[in-house]
Amino acid sequence: MRIAVVFDTLYEGWEHPEHERQMAKEVAAWHDDEPEMEYQIADALRERGHEVFLLGVRDDLHHLTHALGEIAPDLVFNCAEAFHRNPALEYLVAGMLEAEGHRYTGSPPLSLLVSRNKAMSKKVLAYHGIRVPGFATYRPGEPFRIPKRLHFPLIVKPLQSDASAGIAHASVVQDPAALADRVTLVHERFHQPAIAEEFIEGRELYVSLIGNGDALDLLPLTEMVFDKEKTRPEERIATQYAKWDEEYRARRGIRNVFARPLARSVRERIDAICRTAFRVLWLRDYARMDVRLAADGEVWFLEANANPFISYGHDMANAAEKAGLDYYAFIQRLVDEAVERNERA
Question: What is the pLDDT along the chain (345 residues), one digit of tens a residue?
């Protein structure tokens, strides 16, 4: 198959040959440093015999449309996590692919838009009976009010960011003054609304799913664990440092592992909740769900990632490998899901 790997890039004006050269450098140095996700995917697709084209998009959809018209791919592997360096606009790339009639991997633009917005997605999920934390949103310039139904402690996040951007230990607030300070920080630093959710103390579990419709597979659960015995509950959260800074993780005893033992009833509840979320958010092909298991056994749904990180050695790829799919087979499975879905349409 001719497959175009489309991804967001900081490089303005780069064409396919430049991305090819950069990929060659990164893949050759894989033992020293991890290549960018799009280059790993392209490498895996080539290993499976596909003809691959790398197309980076920064802020010009017309250029991308023209390039895809010249390539005429059988499928687009959509890796774009942002547009114009803004993660909240990632849906525009999928929207263009949809409008131009390209077959592509992953969720449609509406699903990307809704799942990216933490408040909007929680409203949809709550309507369908999924337990989500109580929350309030705060737009820049609006009067600051705390709904009576909201109970401290709260955790404050940017409304539409991903990868734990803007989340730190200070995001967990205990009183109105700290809430106001953190909301102001989100407004000033991230230039978007803030969401304040009731903080759920418990285990942080990640659920990866592959498939469509009734043929939806849940991969082995993974979990972020905090091995330092003296950490406080508000320190056991997936901050930006906890996710991405290896030195910080080692110092704090933070690891991502396959989920420690869970009661069968809890696993079944997580399974049912995540399948429902996948369906009602209209997700496709693959996704990752973040849930919290409270001490009383309640499962709280935090958020759905319709366009998750699928690099080698990270949660979803590790879960796929545990299920019997090495990285090349995992990427091929995502291609197969998209192709089969389009053939059924």
Answer: 999 999 999 888 888 999 999 999 999 888 778 899 999 999 999 999 999 999 999 999 999 999 999 999 999 999 999 999 899 999 999 999 999 999 999 999 999 999 999 999 999 999 999 999 999 999 999 999 999 999 999 999 999 988 788 899 999 999 999 999 999 999 999 999 999 999 999 999 999 999 999 899 999 999 999 887 566 887 888 888 888 888 988 888 899 999 999 999 999 999 999 999 999 999 999 999 999 999 999 999 999 999 999 999 999 999 999 999 999 999 999 999 999 999 997
| Contact assessment for residue 184 and residue 141, using Cβ atoms and an 8 Å cutoff | no
The domain segmentation of the chain, as residue ranges, is: 2-104, 132-198, 201-221+259-344
Which residues does residue 51 pair with via DSSP β-bridges, in sequence order?
2
> At 110, which helix (H) or strand (E)?
helix 109-116
pTM of the model: 0.95
> Which CATH class name applies to 132-198?
alpha beta
User: What is the CATH superfamily name and number for domain 201-221+259-344?
Assistant: ATP-grasp fold, B domain (3.30.470.20)
> Tokens 């879960």 map to which residue?
319
The span from the CA of 18 to the CA of 247, in Å, is 32
- Would you tell me how many other CB atoms lie within 10 Å of the CB of residue 29? 11
Q: 52 with 46: CB under 8 angstroms?
A: yes
Q: What angle do CA 59, 61, 64 make, to 5 degrees?
A: 110
